[in-house]
Amino acid sequence: MRVSLLVPFLALFACKGKDSEPVDGSCAQPLAVVSKTASSTGSLAHVTFQIPSGTRSFLLTATSRDGGYAYVSDVTDPSGADPVDAATWLSGTRFLSGGIMALGDELVFNWPARASDGPLQPGQWTVGLQALSSSGSPASESSFDVTLQLNRDWDLQTGCLSVRVIQAPSVADDPALTAAVRAAVEGWKDIYAQVGISLEPVFERSELLPDNLDEPARGSATYEALKGDGAEEDLVVVVGETIGGSGTILGEAGSIPGPLSPSTRGVVAVGWLLEAGTDGVLDPGDIDAMGQTMAHEVGHYLGLFHPIELDGYGNPSGYSDALDDTPACSSASSCQASLGQNLMYPYQLCNGTGCEIQDQLTGQQGGVMQRYTGTR
């Protein structure tokens, strides 16, 4: 999630219709898809699958049929080892994947995520899946619907994302807002180009979208329908006026990483009104900021966490991402100095004259984005 945070001077402190053709790059690389059901009479279910030689990464999406909070508990590779060690990450202070956190009835797990995690071994893999009840105890029985996507494109220097930018009618029918959204996407393209990722955007309009968008992380049947209305490789970005009625949320991703198969959390949402500020008009600086929000939230969808998590005063909370080239910081001022221009900084930093440009990505952040299975 990206929120707006006003920073005073010297202060130390979050019926669709296509109307364009895809542009740029080539997102023609297809993904292999395997669908399974994993069941267990105990608290742990295991799903086993074969990874063909030459596979770069897999994305596993699982939904608990019984509700509860689902997560990946363990992984076994063809050598019999557990390359993920989910339990250690779950109890630690660095974030590797939302798929190993019990956050909801849907989980998404992309592997490998970093250069240090791979390459992916061909052969038989087994993933353990578990669900917790609302009380936090393991479910006595569990059953999951599982979808697995495989990517066999080994070029980690260049990649392409196919994106459907779906606008609420109030946005799509307003020429100024439509122009602003397209200009913001151009800014987003420039940010991703620095790590070798091009975008193929298609712009759409949907009567299903209200001005006040649902929060993707909470799930929405509308989002599942919109995600299922296109190719599985397509990422979906929805644009409306606000998100969840909040006066602070600029954008939100459904999960980290995000799913490729239809899912109630299968979108990134962006609201334009908060970006526009007190005058309600998107000027060039506001449009740049909206492009950075799009890039930030899709960064989450590709598997990136904030480089540092902050408390309510802007100081480090003790949690960070799992990357080694996003520097540690010890105070609000040092975090802003070392990470404030990073695309994935938790807050948009603004003062009375404008907002900080946050468009930088480290090499390892780019590597996570390239290893996302939907990056082709």
Would you spell out the secondary-structure blueprint of this structure?
Layout: E1 2-6, E2 32-40, E3 44-51, E4 57-64, E5 69-76, H1 86-91, E6 94-95, E7 106-111, E8 123-132, E9 142-151, E10 159-167, H2 169-172, H3 175-193, E11 197-205, E12 212-213, H4 221-228, E13 235-240, E14 242-243, E15 249-253, E16 268-271, H5 273-276, H6 284-301, E17 308-310, E18 316-321, H7 332-339, E19 347-351, E20 354-355, H8 363-371
Parallel strand pairs: 1-19, 6-18, 10-11, 10-13, 12-14, 13-16
Antiparallel strand pairs: 1-15, 2-9, 3-8, 4-7, 4-9, 5-8, 15-16, 17-18, 19-20
Protein model, in words:
It is a single chain. The chain is of the alpha/beta class. The protein folds into two domains: 2-24 and 158-371, Collagenase (Catalytic Domain) (3-Layer(aba) Sandwich); 32-151, Jelly Rolls, CATH 2.60.120. It has helices spanning 86-91, 169-172, 175-193, 221-228, 273-276, 284-301, 332-339, 363-371, and strands at residues 2-6, 32-40, 44-51, 57-64, 69-76, 94-95, 106-111, 123-132, 142-151, 159-167, 197-205, 212-213, 235-240, 242-243, 249-253, 268-271, 308-310, 316-321, 347-351, 354-355. An eight-stranded mixed beta sheet has the order 11-10-13-16-15-1-19-20. It has a four-stranded antiparallel beta sheet with strand order 2-9-4-7, with no helix packed on it. The relative contact order is 0.19.
